Amino acid sequence: MLWLTPSDVFIDDAELTGVDAISVDRKADELIIEHAETGPQVIFADVVRQTVHVRIRRRVPATSDVDVLPGDEVVLRFRSAPSNSDARGRDVRIRMVISALLTERATRQASTQTIQAIAIASTPTTDPVEISG
């Protein structure tokens, strides 16, 4: 999932400024794959375990507005809509653990910061990405 220019982005109670993209990637950690004995193709596949990776990309602020470190458990909240009119907007909530803070220096444009995290589910069978609205 990819949200471009989300609005009202918060980590816990602190507002994140300059966010231009939030992405959620799902990766299989454990797979079951079966092949037929009569051919080379896969006839069954199942994802037993998966990890949900979250990335927040934003322009580096002049002063630090959010103090998070790898290992911190936080809640990311934001609103996303297909246009700036906020019509058909959705609220997204993700509980997550920060895994990295990366800063990239750019020469001709604003430097960027990427916050990487692993989403945490409230129960073993629920999706850790909650979308409502």
pLDDT averaged over residues:
90
CATH architectural grouping:
Roll
Top CATH class: Mainly Beta
Shape: elongated
Note the gap between the termini.
17 Å
What string, H for helix and E for strand, traces the elements in order?
EEEEEEEEE
What about the largest sheet?
9 strands, antiparallel
Number of strands: 9
Given the structure, what is the number of helices? 0
Structural class: mainly beta
Strand fraction: over 45%
The third-level CATH topology is: Pnp Oxidase, Chain A
> What's the number of domains?
1
Radius of gyration: 18 Å
Q: Stretches where pLDDT falls below 50 for ≥5 residues? A: none
Q: Roughly what percent helix? A: under 10%
